[in-house]
Amino acid sequence: MGERRYRSASGAPVALRRRQYSASCRELAVRCPRLQLRSLSAVTSAVWLAAYGLFVLSENSMVLSAAIFITLFGLIIYLHFVKVDQESLLVIGSLGIQVTSSYASGRESTTFIEMGQVKDVVINEAIHMQKVIYYLCILLQDPGDPQGVSEVVPLFQSSKPRLDCLIEVYKSCQEILEQRKTAPQSS
């Protein structure tokens, strides 16, 4: 369907890509900015310059070796566990909702929620520091109490898109959830 540009809660650019596979199957993906080589080089240079300064003062070569090791190890950890490139939401009306996070290293983390467990998809608000931020979440139905909520699953936690982007995702999810609610009545 195309890609639209938005901003995250911190002001960074994000892109929302929508794909509609059928009337009851949509994929919504929020893409975060890529890791900038300039910022990576600046951090690496700062750490290595500080290590070189300590080496000059202490005349111990282990300081340089430790700085190189810590920088490389930290970068691998950051790329594999922290830096998310894309978060996607695949909503299939008859099956469920699949939430996927793609990391900068290529690793993917996927969670599937059966449609029978989904009570609703809502936009919630939270106060963070001195501002209100909005986030999309899935409310899971409590098995013991049909009117209750057992768990709240927040979505797009790394990209943190602003409200205008969340509204578009919310409307797409609600269209599919409404189809699911009206389908059993018509058959």
UniProtKB/TrEMBL annotation:
<keyword id="KW-1133">Transmembrane helix</keyword>
<comment type="pathway">
    <text>Glycolipid biosynthesis; glycosylphosphatidylinositol-anchor biosynthesis.</text>
</comment>
<feature type="transmembrane region" description="Helical">
    <location>
        <begin position="40"/>
        <end position="57"/>
    </location>
</feature>
<keyword id="KW-0808">Transferase</keyword>
<protein>
    <submittedName>
        <fullName>PIGH acetylglucosaminyltransferase</fullName>
    </submittedName>
</protein>
<dbReference type="Pfam" id="PF10181">
    <property type="entry name" value="PIG-H"/>
</dbReference>
<feature type="transmembrane region" description="Helical">
    <location>
        <begin position="63"/>
        <end position="82"/>
    </location>
</feature>
<dbReference type="GO" id="GO:0000506">
    <property type="term" value="C:glycosylphosphatidylinositol-N-acetylglucosaminyltransferase (GPI-GnT) complex"/>
</dbReference>
<feature type="domain" description="Phosphatidylinositol N-acetylglucosaminyltransferase subunit H conserved">
    <location>
        <begin position="88"/>
        <end position="157"/>
    </location>
</feature>
<dbReference type="GO" id="GO:0006506">
    <property type="term" value="P:GPI anchor biosynthetic process"/>
</dbReference>
<keyword id="KW-0472">Membrane</keyword>
<dbReference type="InterPro" id="IPR019328">
    <property type="entry name" value="PIGH-H_dom"/>
</dbReference>
<comment type="similarity">
    <text>Belongs to the PIGH family.</text>
</comment>
<dbReference type="InterPro" id="IPR044215">
    <property type="entry name" value="PIG-H"/>
</dbReference>
<keyword id="KW-0812">Transmembrane</keyword>
<dbReference type="GO" id="GO:0016740">
    <property type="term" value="F:transferase activity"/>
</dbReference>
